[in-house]
């Protein structure tokens, strides 16, 4: 299947700092593509390049099979976006804002569509109020309405849950899922929090200091082989020496006086437990982390330089 | 200074004074005729030819009342007349009261042979130091006066007669007078400096000082001696 | 394009700031009219000293035409500020509130955006000057009446008959629109470089003030560059109040202003089409 967006080897340098280095990836129709990275990792810069806000120093951006540049801004009709904050004209109503941004396309959008999109984001009834009276969450939803109003194929949402309360976060999450599931939209969503991505994304890319350090299907990234198991122990004897002599040694990734950390398959946990008890280790606790969080942290902390396809 | 010079002239020509008796009679006769006009109203057309004054021809109504009231009125408009002491009438440019008159011969002006009188007032109340008058003796009309005043320099009045000759009133006059320099700082006026310049202002400015200006008045009609209220001459504030 | 222009104007005219300009013009004109009403004659006589010594100038001197001229002259410095208030904010103001980012994710070209904003700024300028005409000229005429207009130049005393004035004002306002459009283009050019509206507004004013001072200093060292400064040509509207209108000079000035406007607009398009939007 032809990708909606294809990024080929883009690089952007700001004042001698590589914001994005030789980055390539593709977004296919139906993906909810998670963009994960710490603040300053290059997520926003990449999204801005994809939207023509920033011009890459090198590399190509292909949207719907056509190379995108400042002369091909009409290709942006396939994309709707909110980048960073949902900034609007505060002195105008939500309706006026929507109308103004809806007009910034090459086709006319009927009022019925504006109403429909307001309904979709749950702003119906508040559209006549001035935006400066809106809460952050309402602005965020209006931003999404603006991004959706011209019916783009791809929706780019940069940190959409930033600054929202838990209910707002849950609403946005549900909205993203519904856009993908019910409306067939492709979504590129970024976050610096893995669990945000984890809950909505089907594919993801991990960015660190402008470089891709991991990319793949979420199910692959949630590889049970990579489970982290923390074992609390009462310090006694030669625990580490015994492990060193055992077949568990390759799986041991961290050890302190009262805690051992293994990286192993979920099915191996009971076996490890048995072995520890049998070898006279007093186990106080076993915690397994079935989340990408540590994976992400370990990727960004330990292996930042290595690009790995998982 | 001018007055002293005039007195000197007077002393110098004193021996010829007797010869001037005819001239004196001529002057008094002329003055009597001129002073018969007590007042008039006239539609006029005023043309001001002074270098720094860019003024189109002005049409208006001119009111005159003897001895020294004059006013030009233009409906909703602005009128510009030289200051009082040199009124635009013959009567104010020829000295009043007792005078010394000297006949200085004849001259031809625009094909007309005229007698020239020098008139020196004996009283000092008009500001006039000396008047030179070109008179048509037969018609008893003054065709030119050249009046030296204490404060306003020399004023020359040329007159042309036509329809109103019986009142000794001219159809057209031209007043030639000294005009002072005019200048305002550019920082105040914030002028538009033309580029390219249509005229070289700097060149023009050089000879702006104490130039002669000419004011022409064409009298289109007169209403003479019908009486004019003094209120007419009150300046609008 | 028309629809986008309408919406741009809607944005401009829904903002309270826009009306500050109209308020300032109104207030300045009315204060001036009050001042001229109470002490105008004395004020004007000061300038007329040289004339009054020798001539009796009578009639309705302080009339609507003269008052309008004096208002225009005194607003010479303020109007560029008022134009910059809107034009300088077009790009930078949107960058500041963050909407530029959203605008530029939409499928319109940056060239379109700049042209729309320039057109909107020009329309705003036209409306501001038209309002100035209403308040400075027509209100003054209503208060002070018609009359012949005296124009005191540094080297000439000009008087224009009352029936000969109004066309000059129409031309002068037309020229003022052209001059202020140049200011709008300058402001927008500066606006393209900035990420908040204050910078371009102040920079526009700074440029206008400094160049105006240079233009009026008449120092030999500046005389060489003076003909190339757009500020020297901005007062071209005054040419229409000369006894003999210097059409060649006015045409030349208009041409220079158009050249600057085109230059600023071209510069804006060039830079803005290459600018990274980081705001």
From TrEMBL, chain A:
Residues 5-234 form the ABC transporter domain. Keywords: ATP-binding, Nucleotide-binding, Transport. The keyword ATP-binding applies. The keyword Cell membrane does not apply. One of its GO terms (molecular function) is ATP binding. PROSITE patterns: ABC_TRANSPORTER_1, ABC_TRANSPORTER_2. It comes from the Bacteria. Belongs to the ABC transporter superfamily. This is ABC transporter ATP-binding protein.
TrEMBL record, chain B:
It comes from the Bacteria. This is Uncharacterized protein. It comes from Nemorincola caseinilytica.
UniProtKB/TrEMBL annotation, chain C:
Keywords: Membrane, Transmembrane, Transmembrane helix. It comes from the Bacteria. It comes from Nemorincola caseinilytica. PANTHER family: INTEGRAL MEMBRANE PROTEIN-RELATED, MEMBRANE PROTEIN. The chain crosses the membrane at residues 20-38, 66-92, 113-145, 165-190, 197-217, 254-272. Coiled coil: none annotated. This is ABC transporter permease subunit. It holds the Pfam family ABC2_membrane_2.
């Amino acid at each position: 299947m032809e990708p909606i967006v294809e990024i080929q080897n883009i690089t952007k340098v700001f004042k001698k700092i590589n914001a994005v280095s030789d980055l390539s990836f593709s977004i296919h129709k139906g993906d909810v593509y998670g963009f994960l990275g710490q603040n300053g990792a290059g997520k926003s810069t990449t999204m801005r390049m994809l939207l023509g806000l920033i011009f890459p120093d090198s590399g190509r951006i292909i949207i719907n099979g056509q190379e995108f540049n400042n002369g091909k801004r009409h290709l942006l009709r396939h994309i709707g976006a909110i980048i960073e904050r949902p900034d609007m004209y505060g002195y105008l109503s939500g309706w006026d804002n929507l109308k103004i941004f809806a007009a910034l396309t090459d086709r006319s959008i009927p009022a019925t569509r504006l109403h429909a999109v307001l309904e979709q984001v749950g702003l119906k009834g508040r559209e006549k109020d001035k935006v400066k009276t809106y809460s952050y969450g309402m602005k965020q939803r209006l931003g999404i309405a603006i991004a959706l109003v011209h019916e783009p194929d791809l929706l780019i949402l940069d940190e959409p849950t930033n600054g929202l309360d838990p209910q707002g976060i849950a609403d946005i999450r549900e909205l993203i899922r519904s856009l993908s599931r019910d409306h067939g939209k492709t979504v590129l969503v970024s976050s610096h929090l893995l669990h945000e991505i984890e809950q909505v994304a089907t594919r993801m890319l991990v960015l660190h200091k402008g470089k891709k350090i991991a990319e793949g299907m979420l199910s692959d990234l949630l590889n049970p082989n990579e489970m982290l198991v923390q074992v609390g122990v009462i310090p006694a004897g030669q625990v580490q020496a015994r492990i060193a002599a055992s077949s568990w040694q390759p799986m041991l990734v961290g050890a302190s006086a009262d805690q051992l950390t293994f990286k192993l398959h979920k099915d191996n946990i009971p076996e490890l437990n048995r072995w520890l008890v049998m070898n006279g280790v007093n186990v106080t606790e076993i915690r397994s982390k079935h989340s990408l969080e540590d994976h992400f942290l370990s990727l960004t902390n330990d292996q930042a330089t290595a690009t790995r396809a998982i | 200074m001018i007055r002293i010079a005039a007195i000197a002239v007077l002393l110098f020509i004193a021996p010829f004074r007797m010869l001037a008796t005819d001239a004196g009679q001529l002057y008094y006769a002329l003055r009597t005729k001129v002073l018969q006009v007590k007042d008039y109203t006239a539609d006029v057309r005023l043309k001001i030819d002074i270098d720094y004054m860019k003024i189109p021809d002005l049409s208006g109504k001119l009111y005159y009342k003897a001895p020294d009231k004059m006013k030009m009125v233009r409906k909703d408009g602005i009128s510009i007349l030289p200051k009082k002491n040199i009124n635009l009438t013959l009567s104010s440019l020829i000295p009043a009261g007792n005078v010394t008159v000297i006949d200085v011969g004849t001259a031809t002006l625009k094909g007309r042979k005229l007698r020239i009188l020098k008139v020196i007032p004996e009283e000092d109340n008009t500001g006039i130091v000396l008047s030179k008058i070109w008179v048509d003796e037969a018609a008893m009309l003054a065709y030119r006066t050249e009046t030296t005043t204490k404060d306003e320099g020399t004023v020359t009045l040329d007159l042309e007669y036509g329809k109103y000759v019986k009142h000794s009133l001219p159809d057209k006059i031209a007043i030639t007078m000294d005009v002072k320099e005019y200048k305002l700082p550019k920082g105040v006026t914030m002028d538009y400096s033309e580029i390219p310049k249509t005229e070289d202002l700097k060149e023009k400015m050089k000879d702006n000082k104490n130039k002669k200006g000419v004011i022409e008045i064409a009298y289109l009609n007169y209403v003479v001696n019908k009486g004019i209220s003094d209120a007419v001459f009150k300046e609008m504030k | 394009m028309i629809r986008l222009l309408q919406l741009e104007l809607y944005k401009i005219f829904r903002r309270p700031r826009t009306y500050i300009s109209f308020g300032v013009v109104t207030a300045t004109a009315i204060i001036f009219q009050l001042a001229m009403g109470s002490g105008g004659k004395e004020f004007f006589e000061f300038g007329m000293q040289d004339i009054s010594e020798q001539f009796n100038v009578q009639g309705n001197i302080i009339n609507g035409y003269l008052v309008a001229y004096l208002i225009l002259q005194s607003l010479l410095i303020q109007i560029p500020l008022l134009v910059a208030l809107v034009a300088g904010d077009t790009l930078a103001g949107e960058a500041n509130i963050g909407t530029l980012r959203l605008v530029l994710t939409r499928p319109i070209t940056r060239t379109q955006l700049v042209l729309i904003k320039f057109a909107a700024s020009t329309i705003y300028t036209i409306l501001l000057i038209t309002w100035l005409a209403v308040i400075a000229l027509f209100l003054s005429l209503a208060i002070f009446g018609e009359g012949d207009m005296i124009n005191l130049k540094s080297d000439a005393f000009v008087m224009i008959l009352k029936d000969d004035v109004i066309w000059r004002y129409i031309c002068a306002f037309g020229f003022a629109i052209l001059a202020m459009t140049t200011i709008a283009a300058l402001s927008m050019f500066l606006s393209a470089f900035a990420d908040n509206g204050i910078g371009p507004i102040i920079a526009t004013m700074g440029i206008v003030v400094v160049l105006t001072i240079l233009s009026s200093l008449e120092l030999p060292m500046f005389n060489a560059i003076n003909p190339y400064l757009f500020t020297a040509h901005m007062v071209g509207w005054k040419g229409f109040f000369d006894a003999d209108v210097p059409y060649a000079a006015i045409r030349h000035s208009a041409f220079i202003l158009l050249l600057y406007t085109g230059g600023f607009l071209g510069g804006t398009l060039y830079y803005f089409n290459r600018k990274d939007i980081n705001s």
